[in-house]
Amino acid sequence: MDFSPLKAALADVVAIPVTPFAEDGSIDVANHRALTRRLLDGGVRIVTPNGNTGEFYALTPDEQRLVTELTVEEAAGRATVLVGVGHDVPAAVAAAEHAAEAGAAMVMVHQPVHPYVAQEGWVDYHRAIAEAVPELGVVPYIRNPLLAGDRLAALADSCPNVIGVKYAVPDAARFGAFARDAGLERFVWVAGLAELYAPSYFATGATGFTSGLVNVAPAVSLDMLEALRAGDYVAAMKVWERIRRFEELRAEEQSANNVTVVKEALSVLGLCRREVRAPSRVLPEERRTEVAEQIAAWAL
User: Fold this and answer.
1) Rounded to whole angstroms, how far apart are CA atoms 271 and 93?
2) According to the model, what pLDDT value does residue 299 have?
3) Does domain 3-216 have CATH number 1.10.287.600?
4) Which helix (H) or strand (E) holds 13?
5) Is 238 designated active site?
6) Is 233 among the catalytic positions?
7) How far apart are CA 124 and CA 87, in angstroms?
8) Which of 51, 103, 134, 171 is the most buried (most CB within 10 A)?
């Protein structure tokens, strides 16, 4: 298969949508559709339902399938859908097969959460998923700094549908080395730690970056992408300075508030309830005030 259109789609702002909850705790279907349309109307062209900002690990399998279907329906003809899958191998394969049936183009394989991950076992895990959906592009989500680049290359040798990588180790030098060990031109490299790391990762080989911020301010994320594509790091860092505190709030306490801050911002804008599921938790009042101040400064 020719995966070049999917590779081109990955080299962009890869939006990780939130999953809005209704007052009774269920997924707010109407609001989910509205938030997805807002992303698309804002210029987003690739979305990842069931990503970490979508609270993947707090959703039931039925809810994950619902989120996939809602996103595919809304994105039809307007954006590429990259569905997050994970957990044990049978669950990840079933989710990937459902993504294919629903009409998604790619799957992002969440980092294995097993406490004991061998490098060859990592290859086996991803191979099982990729082989189950040979028609889909497959994007491993890498957060393990010990994984060697040649293991990714070995995976792609047997699974040509492994076409991109979401790399989320907070070390630009390690990323640059890993990408070159795996094959810089062989994969699309997506900076998986969002806007704060995007400039440094682009400097060492990335051509796309993930974003949760894009839920709140699509134009801001797209401004950074435009600057990075042009090699204008001065302009990119001006965007970086603008959103720095917001992203720092998300990163506090080992990213405990990653989703919470985004939902709080959407709540300030009247677009989404602030509620999140455990083990995440709603922000304390003083942090809510700070998020509101950040949003006001952006003049959205």
Assistant:
1) 33
2) 76
3) no
4) strand 13-15
5) no
6) no
7) 14
8) 51
Q: Residue 77 pLDDT > 90, yes or no?
A: no
Question: Full-prediction pTM beyond 0.90?
Answer: yes
Selecting among 141, 167, 197, 201, the annotated active-site residue is: 141
pLDDT of residue 221: 97
Confirm or deny that 36 is annotated as ligand binding: no
- Annotated catalytic residue within 7, 57, 125, 166: 166
Each domain of the chain, given as residue ranges in start order, spans 3-216
> For residue range 191-249, what is the model confidence (pLDDT) as tens digits?
999 999 999 999 999 999 999 999 999 999 999 999 999 999 999 999 999 999 999 99
**Residue whose token pair is 């792609």:** 156
Q: What is the mean pLDDT of the chain?
A: 97
8 Å CB contact between 214 and 221: yes
Judge contact between 295 and 268, C-beta under 8 A: yes
Distance (Å, whole) CA 275 – CA 65: 21
Q: How far is CA 217 from CA 15, 39, 101, 151, 269, in A?
A: 11, 9, 31, 37, 11
Gap between the Cα atoms of 194 and 255, Å rounded: 12
